[in-house]
Amino acid sequence: MLSVLRDRTYRRLFSAQVVALIGTGLLTVALGLLAFDLAGSNAGAVMGTALTIKMLAYVGFAPVINALVARLPKKPVLIAADLVRAAMALCLPFITEAWQIYVVIFLLQSASATFTPAFQSLIPTVLKKERDYTHALSLSRLAYDMEALVSPAAAALLLTLVSYNNLFLGTVFGFLFSATMVAATTLPKTADDIGTSGSLWHRTTLGARIFWKNRRLRSLLALNLVVAAPTALVLVNSVVYVRDVLHRPATDLALALACFGVGSMIVAITAPRVLERFGDRAVMLTGAALIPVALAGAAAVTFLATPESGLWWLLGLWFLLGASNSTILTPSSRLLRDASTEATRPYVFTAQFSLSHACYIIAYPLAGWLGAAAGLGWAAAALTILAILGSAGAFLSWPRQDLTPVGEPVTKEPNVEQPTEQPVP
């Protein structure tokens, strides 16, 4: 897997991704502490609003921003997005009102909505071999999982030495390092550097239209809903399971979250070999079948578990949810690459970025608001139903007789539009 780091261009881009992710993790911790300083017991409402703004920026603005910058070279776009993110993070220590958090978060996350799809769509151009690209996806999944484990630990250590405002400086450093690495890298010239035709509306909606007209991507759209359900349950309600349902100490919360991350990491490490043997469909749909079962188990834990036995059930279920999520998330970019040409790739990756985050706008309220109003068991049951619906959609959309070879573009289906065509009225 690490052999792909021998490629100098990818090595620098991966380093930029890892450091920026750690900086983003520090931002999450520091932002929560800032919200508490400003709003006290209403900090949850402030954070909830900030996260909603983040998702709206991802869902509503990512396709528009990508369409606006589509004719620009990748390097200045990535550097500019990193610099905007660094500038916004630098503003956070000086905030004195909650509304200022919302403005800064909106601008920061809009820049992230510009950077992330452009960055992800660049990797298939750098690593053209199937095996190398699959290894890069595994490394990327590992980077996200390690960030979830390392950033909170690093933040806890730093908070023993400095105030939380200094954590924002770590975020600034992460984004500036990312910009520096991109600036120092010679990026391959892509079709988007030459320019694309079509109206702004045509380019904004192009990715979504390709999604709808491609069988594999329609399945991926349903799988995004499957992934959102356990992620929301784990991130929103793990603390409730540990502290309120099982009456366990706070240290067990870290253990539960670690099990979710370890399950995901194990799958990411083994993904290249497993995908080579079984293919994308078998691996991803296996995860889609397991997630509803594990979520139903989480609902059962709510009603049946004891403080002693329940913890082990919880840890096992969280491990299974993390592993199942990774079976879907790790190979997903292979589908995006195979379903796009070099010219349409940024639009397809942006559509996935936007549509996948739209699923969280459904899952987060089910996990949080329904859990608070009706109880954790009902929230887990609702998320189970959500995952079942997504899983059914994925199985129906991705036919068993999918004979398209891995690595062969599948966008050559009838009526799939390319950016050189005339805009749809």
UniProtKB/TrEMBL annotation:
Residues 406-425 are annotated as: Disordered. InterPro entries: MFS (IPR011701), MFS_dom (IPR020846), MFS_trans_sf (IPR036259). It is found in: Cell membrane. GO terms for cellular component: plasma membrane. The chain crosses the membrane at residues 12-36, 42-65, 77-95, 220-241, 253-271, 283-305, 311-329, 349-370, 376-396. GO terms for molecular function: transmembrane transporter activity. Keywords: Cell membrane, Membrane, Transmembrane, Transmembrane helix. It comes from the Bacteria. It is a multi-pass membrane protein. CDD domains: MFS_MefA_like (cd06173). Residues 217-425 form the Major facilitator superfamily (MFS) profile domain. This is MFS transporter. It comes from Paenarthrobacter nitroguajacolicus (Arthrobacter nitroguajacolicus).
